[in-house]
Amino acid sequence: MANESVHFFDLYSDRPTATKSWSPHTLKVRAILNFKGIPYTQTWTSYPDVKPLATSLGLSPNASGIPYTVPIIIHKSVTSNPNGAIMDSIPIGLHLDKVFPSPPLFPSGDASYALLLAVDKIVSQLEPSIRPFIVPRVVSHLDERGQKYFHETRSRSFGKPLSEVRPTNAETIEALWKESATVAAPLVKMLAGREGKTGPFFEGEKAGFADLLLAARLAFIARYDEELFGRFVGLGGGELGRLYEACRPWLEGQGVDKEWEFPQAA
User: Fold this and answer.
1) pLDDT digits (tens, 9 = 90+) for 3-44
2) C-alpha span between 232 and 243 (Å, rounded)
3) Average pLDDT, integer, range 97-112
4) For range 92-112, the mean pLDDT
5) 3-state secondary structure of 86
6) 42-62 in b/e burial notation, b at 16+ Cβ within 10 A?
């Protein structure tokens, strides 16, 4: 089964090929597939098609947050679903690491898994301070149906029209950046490590899931706000920038495009 291609559902954008994949969640799975050298096909998905796709594959809704999301993969090794489907980046990553164990996503075993959980927690705390900068710029790169869906759902989430979300006041911008820098500071220290550490990754020369997760978030920022990205990679001694560049080939690698007949939304 490990010789069978994985089919991967990503979110559509009109961006150039190398940066076409933009969601920090789907980028995690894309990076894993490329890091491990797993052969895969890919389908670019419009937002309104995500729920019909997930339900047609027999996937249960997420326990919290948005009920149905991408990434979704299909692979014959998946026995928990009749269609071989899994949804959500971390369950997907854990499954792929079992089926395709080399190179490992957890080079130090359980310690690497604990590192993943810690990094995921810190990265999630960046959301409130970076979303106002990034999210309003996503919509113009989606397909027409996706734009309508995204504008409606994100305007509702922010409690105001999406066009009014991105801050323009210098004081607000600096306050949000100060919050981001404070949250990111432990990540910079963790990457810097102790005196004598070598390599751009959390565990030195060996990349793992935690690195790919953080790099995916940095890529999301880089896709839509180069100035903000520049401020992040300028923190500390440039540790975040070195991590991003080391992971970049895995973030930008492409599978073979495959058309998919999406079920009609109810």
Assistant:
1) 789 999 999 999 999 999 999 999 999 999 999 999 999 999
2) 12
3) 98
4) 98
5) strand
6) bbbbbbbbbbebbbebebeee
Name the residue among 180, 30, 128, 196 with its Cα closest to residue 188. Answer: 180
User: Torsion over CA of 253, 258, 263 and 265, rounded to 10 degrees?
Assistant: 40
| Sheet of 72-74, strand order | 85-87, 72-74, 6-11, 40-45, 256-257
What are the beta bridge partners of residue 153? none
Sign, CA torsion 77/79/82/84: negative
Q: What is the mean pLDDT of residues 217-245?
A: 98
Residue 148 CA to residue 133 CA, distance in Å, equals 19
What confidence score (pLDDT) does residue 266 get?
Answer: 56
| CA 115/CA 220 separation, integer angstroms | 21
CA-closest candidate to residue 6, choices 25, 27, 34, 47: 34
pLDDT in tens, 172-201: 999 999 999 999 999 999 999 999 999 999
Q: Show Cβ contacts of residue 113 under 8 Å, excluding neighbours closer than 6 positions.
A: 106, 209
Report how far residue 30's alpha carbon sits from residue 216's, in angstroms, rounded to the nearest whole number.
9
Integer Cα distance of 250 and 254 in angstroms: 9
Distance CA 213, CA 47 (A): 22
